[in-house]
Amino acid sequence: MFSKSCEYAIKAMIFVAQKSKEEARVSVKEIAKGINAPEHFIAKILQELGRKNLLQSMKGPNGGFFMEKADLKTSLSDIVTAIDGNKIYNDCVLGLKACSEKNPCPVHNEYKEVKRGLIRMLESNTISDFNERLNSGNFFLKNN
Amino acid sequence: MFSKSCEYAIKAMIFVAQKSKEEARVSVKEIAKGINAPEHFIAKILQELGRKNLLQSMKGPNGGFFMEKADLKTSLSDIVTAIDGNKIYNDCVLGLKACSEKNPCPVHNEYKEVKRGLIRMLESNTISDFNERLNSGNFFLKNN
DNA sequence: AAAATAAAAGATAAAAAACTCTTTTTATAT
DNA sequence: ATATAAAAAGAGTTTTTTATCTTTTATTTT
């Protein structure tokens, strides 16, 4: 569904959001540990998320990654698009370049419904939604 | 969504089904050309589909791939599972091994609905459905 | 100003996926 | 029987993705 990078990105965004409640900054090391991701790899992803302005960062002592209030409005779709591009929106399930509404592949119409549901899900779920869920204690991000 | 191999597999299955209406056998070369797939690569995939008994093959002159009536009942799900395994059924969207109904990740419940739709789609669409659609002339498999 | 800390950037390495080439096996036709 | 055709199998190669290591730049603290 998503690339590994994208999975990490989503987890990292949620993790940073959780941690930056009390104005704290989170280092790459903490994030990597917190979401079981390879440190230097997640660093690259965080850089990209920063470039795309989905979260903020500061260098130097007491630096790290953090979120402003606006960043909490980021949707899953924003993250997925930032890291994996918009192939979920555009590409044919069978990888046919010519596939379209007017020239549909045999799976097109059936997949359209699934895709609609997926996109709706991606666009309606935001980081602050996830935050609330985690705060409730009924959801988890840890892998073990 | 699916691996490249899996996309090819689906296209190949549909292509062979189309061609084996009149008892004909189709060579790897024809299939490769017909679905714009690299010849030796699709050959491997066809081998695997054969091993899993989703289609039939014969060696030698006038040999090639073909389908028996029963093979037309193959669902998209059968093909996807044969090539990509059942990660669509089992894996967490965020790649969390510990994610489950009892221990859900923040995306779990929302994704569950999407997944349900996807699986329904995969299981209810068969090769013969695609065949009929292609026969109607309103659907296409060619890439250009 | 100097030392320390942490992200940014760049370069390299390992693993997986996609693709290619060669040889072997099996069936058919002559 | 022999030659031929086509898949099966095996052994690479290339490309992409994932992961690691090193150097540079920015910020803070002393």
SSE blueprint:
Two copies of one chain form a homodimer.
Chain A (H helix, E strand, L loop, with lengths): L3 H16 L8 H8 L3 H13 L4 E3 L5 E3 L9 H9 L2 H4 L17 H17 L2 H10 L8
Antiparallel strand pairs in A: 1-2
Helix pairs in contact in A: 1-2, 1-3, 1-4, 1-7, 2-3, 4-6
Chain A binds a DNA duplex (30 and 30 nucleotides) through helix 3.
Physical arrangement of strands within the biggest beta sheet of chain A: 1-2
The percentage of residues in β strands of chain A lies in: under 5%
* SSE succession of chain A: HHHEEHHHH
* Rounded radius of gyration of chain A (Å): 17 Å
Oligomer: homodimer
User: Given the C-alpha coordinates, what overall shape of chain A results?
Assistant: elongated
Give the CA-CA distance, first to last residue of chain A: 22 Å
Q: Mean pLDDT of chain A, as a whole number?
A: 96
Interface with most residues: A-B, 40 and 40 residues
Number of E-type strands of chain A: 2
Summing up helix and strand content along with how strands pair, one would put the structural category of chain A as mainly alpha
* Count of DSSP-assigned helices of chain A: 7
- Percent range of helical residues of chain A: 40-55%
Give the low-confidence spans of chain A.
none
Main sheet summary of chain A: 2 strands, antiparallel
Description:
Two copies of one chain form a homodimer. Chain A contains seven helices and two strands, in the order αααββαααα. With 144 residues, chain A is mainly alpha-helical. Chain A has a two-stranded antiparallel ribbon with strand order 1-2. In chain A, a hairpin with a 5-residue loop joins strand 1 and strand 2 (64-66). The longest helix of chain A has 17 residues, at 108-124. Chain A is elongated and about 55 Å long. The two termini of chain A are 22 Å apart. The model of chain A has no long low-confidence stretch (mean pLDDT 96). The A-B interface holds A 1-2, 4, 7, 10-11, 14, 76, 93-99, 103-108, 110-111, 113-114, 117-118, 121, 125, 129-130, 133-134, 138-144 and B 1-2, 4, 7, 10-11, 14, 76, 93-99, 103-108, 110-111, 113-114, 117-118, 121, 125, 129-130, 133-134, 138-144.
